[in-house]
Amino acid sequence: MTHPITPVVLCGGMGSRLWPMSRVEQPKQFQPTLGKGSLTYFQATLQRHRGPDFAQPIVVTNAGQAALVHRQLDEIQLQGRVIGEPVGRNTGPAVLAAALCAQRDDPEAMILVLPSDHMIKGDINRIIRAMHRAAEDGRIISFGVHPTYPETGYGYITDGGPVPDYPGLHQVAQFVEKPGHDHAQRLIQAGGVFWASGISLMRAETLIEEFRRLDPFTHAAVLGALDAAELRTLGIILDEASFRQAANEPTERQVFERTPAIALAPLHGVQWDDVGAWNAVYQVSDRDGDGNVLHGDVIAMNTRNSLVQSETRLVAVIGMQDTVVIDTPDAVLVTRRSNSQDVKQLVDRLKASQRREVRTHMTREMPWGRIETVSTDMGNDMRIMTVQKKASLQVNGTGLGPSLLTVLSGEGRCLIDGREVTVRRGQTVAIDPDEALPLSNPTDSDLKLVHLVFRGGTDIGGPGCEPMLVASDRLPEAI
């Protein structure tokens, strides 16, 4: 290989069938693959394509998740460019935006498009390296997986025969998008068919020119969104007005199914799964002698062929079979493995009820640290805020009721009545509903605070009260 490959990692979507691990604000790709303490799906994807053959990655994600992306990059000591999408427009515009960025850095850029939430075992990079020359010569290579059952949630690619002079490369006879069960069964029985993995390799210039030719309107919209992008510390945020004009379509439909440059590279010897449901997690995981997959503090008695996962506490199961138990601090899922696909219907019901548990976890990673909700009562919240060293933030009022910040440990600085005030252990700051409190941690250790959020029904602070400091020699007994 003469030119390094730039991984383009796509981080969109929620992965609703993996609730309660996956949430709207902390979706599947940012959750650990094998329970607490393991690499996340996103991190595993980055690690898989890291080394002398690869350049620094480009990550395309929801603009609101840019901070989470950077945190997870930092955890594995990896740099990368982050492109924030102001609105979701499917994979086509996302891949095009990344290709345009890559080409601006390097006119000869080679990109490897990667979903961020798949599990892969085997030497996939060996096959990718073997396809490098074909991509250099203008081919768009889609990697296919040998199907093991008639999955109706995947797209299929039928083999059109070998491409001369490129060992391992095949023509594409047809794309079949998510066939019904009987159709999928017939495709597999006929042979010469592969699941579309969502992984593809090409020169950035090749993809850009095909977008320009096949969908000039989307090409212009994404180019305009990039030219007018907002540069931030955490990356660039595409211009929303321009990006909204792009077609809301996958790359396959916009380009792959319509270009003569497309080719197929089978991933022989590679185990792949997009892990779209809990049964899929079970299928790709290592099992014990009873056929169980156990993650976290779990005890299983007389239990077989089950997936049991705990994040924070002991979970004990007795007499279970073919069952999924997923325990998180604020929600527990219990279902049969055969009903894993039905979790999406449960999530739809939770969304209709506007349940917080479908939107966010109790602990949220932020650019400046993290927030953990430890108690909720009558709509009022108690949160633990950890502000990292040298970080700063703005604590906004709720608009409905006052809030209080009490320092547990460390030292912070906030702006009260136009002057900078130092706050230490045991001191409390009251924040009016319509005010915002600038807060920073100038020290080399974490600043930890309790944030009490009242949404009405209390006189704390009073109407129109500015942020104020309440001094105390020790922490309140109630905390």
Structural class: alpha/beta
Overall geometry = globular
- Cα end-to-end separation: 60 Å
Might you state the CATH topology name of the largest domain? Spore Coat Polysaccharide Biosynthesis Protein SpsA, Chain A
Number of structural domains: 3
Please state the CA-atom Rg, rounded to the nearest Å.
25 Å
Mean pLDDT rating: 89
pLDDT under 50 segments (min length 5)?
A: 457-479
Instruction: Specify the biggest β-sheet.
Output: 11 strands, mixed
Looking at CATH, the homologous superfamily of the largest domain is Spore Coat Polysaccharide Biosynthesis Protein SpsA, Chain A
CATH architecture of the largest domain: Alpha-Beta Complex
CATH class of the largest domain: Alpha Beta
Roughly how much helix do the residues carry, as a percent range? 10-25%
Strand proportion: 25-35%
Oligomerization category of the chains in this entry: single chain
Detailed description of the structure:
- This protein is α/β, with parallel strands linked by helices.
- The protein has three domains: 5-273, Spore Coat Polysaccharide Biosynthesis Protein SpsA, Chain A, CATH 3.90.550.10; 278-348, no CATH class; 368-470, Jelly Rolls.
- The protein contains 13 helices and 30 strands.
- Strand 1, helix 1 (41-48) and strand 2 (58-62) form a beta-alpha-beta unit.
- The protein is globular, with a radius of gyration of 25 Å.
- The relative contact order is 0.11.
- Mean pLDDT is 89; it is low at 457-479.
